[in-house]
Design a protein that fits this description.
The structure holds two protein chains of two kinds. Chain A is mostly helical. Chain A is built from 19 helices and two strands. In chain A, a hairpin with a 4-residue loop joins strand 1 and strand 2. By secondary structure, chain B is mainly alpha-helical. Classes of the chains: A mainly alpha, B mainly alpha.
């Protein structure tokens, strides 16, 4: 596999990853200097600015080619699909660094920010992985950093418990995935996605073992994307982890799970060349999407803690995204190359990108309220509209967008997802999706009701908003409004990214 | 029966033992050891398959997995120690603050 000539300029394909690694260690070594002027505010700002600079540099130095390119011994596929996901992860990482600056319960030093950057780096590798070796290594790189971040509040038993649960379930699910990968390797003798696909479609390949291997690998993906039945860790971990980290895990890590899953399934188990294994994953998506949506939404209703409610809601959001994946599976399995797959993939990318902004915004506000009011229960949000009208307004914007209320961006994104499902005649799935949106109105508006209708004795007390957190809330809610108003360029970018992924099908 | 089948069988047995250990043990350290057993069963499978295909990709993968396992030990033990400090126990049944 290393028979190809190594060209140093190929390293530009991993420019974001190299830059992020460099920056993480730079932040870490700044921390060792113990200079008084390098407090956590400065370190957090430097981290956030640094990762954004890395993204800009990567855009200038190594823009992805039209058709994408397979580089570095077949490990990396450098295309617009990976690039767009990189941008999502890096923006999420930057927002998380900024949010952590004023999140007092975390005694963040340089190591906290370095871990956020390293997790982002792992996710960027996940988006471009084109080989099962890199698939495993990238997944573990991001997971390992996230385990530590989830348990970062060492003196808070809830956070330690969250980190421990995340680690145990994460380690076992990735190990199961590794065993599945070993079977894939045993069946094909290959580690690159396309070569695996070619070997698995051979008629003499033992197909039942292939199905078993695929199921084992899917467990790893289901864990990352919080798909039922491997969602059970999510509420506990999201609840116990430091709130900025929760925002990061629930958006970027989930997005990375979808990014790597879609590429792996489309390339290594391509539905264009059907085998029993590909038929299994195509058939599996719809029931999993339905279960994930219902479970997330129904359990979210019963929660009294807003943070935990958002945790269940983010499981439900993964279910909506899986509607798009289901449409993609059906479109691709029709055999001929048609225009439907790019639409489905673009719907998924668009939804993930907008969901990243909305959910990080929501968790930013929840973290702030929890610090000011002493808890994140529904009653702690009572009268927020009178204490801090702008914060309440921002919360309404992100919650309505998460619900999918027109004309906000959450509605636009769901429209794209549902439309791609309708194109595949998945009417039942769309009906289930709409029912779930209606269920979710109930609990999202419960928070709005608490903020605007209910009264609280603390209403007259001031509600100071730390500057940086205020900026993050402003950025996320502004992003929601801006993408709502001008969604076309973002959709076009998602569509171009989807088409770059699809070049293999042509 | 070709030459690698016994190794694959052994790796499947080790993997099953790891899964059973993961499901039945209540001590975090023992659960962790079970996960390590599963990792090494996958390693054995990779080496056996690499031998069967007559190439080195699978063997190379094993080196990476070993590095990952070492990193996992560092992260996992750190988290176990953190929990032990607050709960004075490494029993996973004591992890019950977060539920609902």
């Amino acid at each position: 596999m290393f028979g190809t000539q190594f060209n140093p300029s190929d390293l530009l394909a991993v420019a974001p990853e190299i830059g992020l690694t460099f920056w993480a260690f730079f932040i870490l070594s700044l921390d060792f200097l113990k200079l008084p002027q390098l407090n956590r505010r400065v370190l957090g700002m430097l981290s956030a600015i640094g990762v954004l600079v890395v993204m800009v540099l990567a855009t200038v130095l190594a823009p992805p080619a039209d058709k994408g390119a397979v580089l570095l011994g077949g490990m990396i596929r450098h295309d617009l699909y990976a690039y767009v996901f990189d941008a999502v992860f890096i923006v999420a990482g930057a927002l998380t660094c900024l949010l952590s600056i004023d999140f007092k319960p975390v005694r963040a030093g340089g190591e906290f920010f370095a871990l956020v950057i390293l997790a982002t780096m792992g996710m960027c590798l996940m988006a471009s992985a084109n080989d099962i070796i890199l698939l495993f290594l990238a997944t573990e790189t991001s997971s390992m950093a996230l385990y530590l971040l989830a348990g970062f509040m060492r003196d808070t038993p809830r956070s330690a418990e969250a980190g421990m649960k995340y680690f145990i379930f994460g380690a076992v699910s990735s190990t199961i995935m590794l065993y599945g990968l070993s079977l894939v390797y045993g069946l094909s003798g290959q580690t690159g996605y396309e070569k695996i696909a070619a070997a698995l479609t051979a008629p003499e390949s033992p197909h039942m073992v292939g199905v078993f291997a695929l199921l084992l690998v899917m467990i790893g993906f289901a864990f990352k994307t919080t798909a039922v039945p491997f969602h059970f860790w999510a509420p506990d971990v999201y609840d116990g982890a430091p709130t900025p980290v929760t925002g990061f895990i629930s958006t970027a890590s989930k997005a990375a799970g979808f990014a790597i899953m879609i590429r792996f399934l489309l390339y290594a188990f391509s539905p264009l060349a059907p085998t029993p294994a590909t038929q299994v994953w195509v058939a599996m998506m719809q029931p999993v999407a339905i279960l994930t949506m219902f479970l997330g939404n129904l359990l979210a209703i019963t929660q009294t803690s807003v943070k935990r409610m958002l945790a269940y809601s983010s499981i439900a959001q993964a279910g909506y995204i899986m509607i798009g994946v289901t449409a993609l599976a059906y479109a691709a399995s029709r055999g001929e190359v048609n225009g439907a797959e790019p639409n489905a993939i673009a719907g998924v990318i668009f939804y993930i990108a907008t969901y990243m902004f909305t959910n990080i915004g929501a968790f930013a506000i929840v973290g702030l309220v929890a610090q000011r009011a002493g808890g994140d229960n529904l009653k702690d949000f009572s009268g927020l509209a009178r204490r801090s009208p702008y914060l309440a307004l921002a919360m309404v914007a992100v919650l309505l967008s998460l619900t999918g209320a027109p004309p906000l961006v959450g509605f636009v994104g769901k429209l794209f997802l549902f439309r791609s499902a309708v194109d595949e005649n998945l009417i039942g799935l769309v009906v289930v999706g709409v029912i779930n949106v209606l269920i979710s109105v109930f609990y999202y508006l419960g928070v709005v009701r608490a903020m605007y209708v209910e009264r609280s004795p603390n209403e007259s007390r001031p509600f100071p908003i730390p500057a940086v957190t205020g900026w993050v809330v402003l950025i996320t809610s502004a992003a929601v409004l801006i993408i709502t108003l001008v969604s076309t360029p973002f959709w076009d970018l998602a569509l171009a990214a989807a088409k770059s992924l699809q070049t293999i099908l042509n | 029966m070709n030459t690698v089948s016994p190794y694959i069988l052994l790796s499947a047995i080790l993997f099953s033992m790891g899964v059973i250990g993961f499901l039945t043990r209540r001590n975090a350290i023992m659960i962790f050891m079970s996960v390590e057993l599963m990792l090494n069963s996958a390693n054995l499978a990779f080496v056996a398959f690499a031998h069967q295909w007559g190439q080195l990709d699978g063997q190379m993968f094993v080196f990476f997995v070993m590095a990952v396992a070492a990193a996992e030990v560092a992260v996992g033990l750190a988290l176990i120690v953190t929990v032990f400090r607050s709960k004075k126990s490494a029993n996973v049944d004591d992890l019950h603050q977060l539920k609902g």
